[in-house]
Amino acid sequence: MSPARAAHYHGGMELDRFDRQLLNLVQEDAGQTAERLAEQVALSPSAIQRRLRRLREAGVIQRQAAVLDPRQVGRPTFFVVSLQVERERPELLAQLRRWLGAQAQVQQAFYVTGEADFVLVVTAPDTESFDALMLKLVEDNPNVRRFTTNVALSLVKRGLTIPVPLDEAD
Fold this sequence. Notes:
Layout: H1 3-6, E1 9-10, E2 13-14, H2 17-28, H3 34-40, H4 45-57, E3 77-85, H5 90-102, E4 106-111, E5 118-124, H6 127-140, E6 144-151
Helix pairs in contact: 3-4
């Protein structure tokens, strides 16, 4: 298989142009009906449903989620946190990953290269709640050496969309 074709091969499943169109559309709004999607993709609603089911079963679509207005649910503040750990021993990193994964306020956590070891996106209703979370982080994870925090002043863009090229050559 050529590298270009391999890039469009997922979990033993090759994605065609229709699959890629659907993936782009449902990333923007997963609540669209099969009928609405069929208006945008040259397939019948039943073919759309079959393809979406197949994409879910193959793990290409991992889950669907609602995007909320943070102000309307009492979480208006976002924090970008850089963590440094003392030692990068596998068992200590696994413990920290589990801890981060269990925290509802941690929206995203990345293990990264560079000066920081992890970069987090955290949401909280206020700085006091954020401070309490970070105190718990340090208490529960003594391997965390230090962290730095940036408070988001405004939301410019938020999303998890991964652009899916429509053609194999893209």
